[in-house]
Amino acid sequence: MLKSLPAIAIVASCGAPGVVPPQPAHGSPVANSVTSAPAPRLEPFVVPSPRGDETCHLRGDEIDEVAPPVIALAAWTPAGGGDDCPTGFVATVTDSAACSGCESGRTHDGRRVRLVIDGPNGSEHLFALGLAVDGTPTRFACLPASTVGIRALGGTPDGFGRMPWLADLDHDGASELVVWEPLAWGDAAVQTALFPVVYAIDGDRLVRRDDRAKELRHTVAGWYAAKPHEECFATIARALGG
């Protein structure tokens, strides 16, 4: 499992409604300005993490520890993103045309999103992810992931293609970030399942949206359901929604 995780800034979800200004008295001058309500903030949607059953105890609490409801997107500074960011991330952020080997997408308001992916590394299939969102200033987040669960499966099924990391999962024109986390049922690295966590990009933060992960989790559940005689696979399939 992931033993050492970088500190992730977490901010509270906010979304105060707009305040209607008091109406002027009859005959009073009206100010030549309009107060508009702020755009609503996206609320986190987090379902209970899977715990398994009496025969296979899935450690979903470990996912909750590394995948918080909200992750702040920090403003980029000349000092860079720190040691937790993947190799080549600085060049991607500082040069808007640079996206060699990275994935790109768009936010709801049309800003470009770039994701640098470094991995898999080592026996635990560790990844370093660096997400940059264009704007003034550019905002970013670097976070870890792991696809060690692929070991028990023996790879993804034929015809599935590459595992998604940045994709429009709900088909609304905006990209979501997919962070693959390990869902363990034992102490060995091979006793781990794939568990996708999905974040929507909402202004200056990432907001966890398990509702948008439903279709992808259902697909992954099918991989485990296809091998019901393997250790804990049937339990994993049910936990993922299969």
Describe the fold and architecture.
- The protein is 15% helix and 25% strand.
- It starts with 59 loop residues before the first helix and ends with a helix.
- It has helices at residues 60-66, 89-94, 150-153, 214-225, 233-240, and strands at 70-72, 74-75, 103-106, 112-121, 126-133, 139-146, 166-167, 176-184, 192-202, 205-208.
- With 242 residues, the protein is α+β, with helices and mostly antiparallel strands.
- Helix 4 (214-225) runs antiparallel to helix 5.
- The longest helix is centred in the last third of the chain and has 12 residues, at 214-225.
- It is built from five helices and ten strands.
- The radius of gyration is 21 Å and the shape is globular.
- The protein has a domain at 60-213.
Shape verdict = globular
Largest sheet: number of strands, sense, barrel closure? 5 strands, antiparallel
Strand content: 25-35%
Q: Output the radius of gyration.
A: 21 Å
Number of strands: 10
> Order of SSEs, N→C?
HEEHEEEEHEEEEHH
Instruction: Give the class from helix and strand content and strand pairing.
Output: alpha+beta
Sheet with most strands: strand arrangement: 1-10-9-8-7
What percent of the residues sit in helical stretches (DSSP H or I)?
10-25%
Question: Poorly predicted ranges (pLDDT <50, ≥5 residues)?
Answer: 1-37
Termini separation comes to 24 Å
- Helix count, DSSP H or I runs of 4 or more residues: 5
Give the integer mean of the pLDDT values.
82
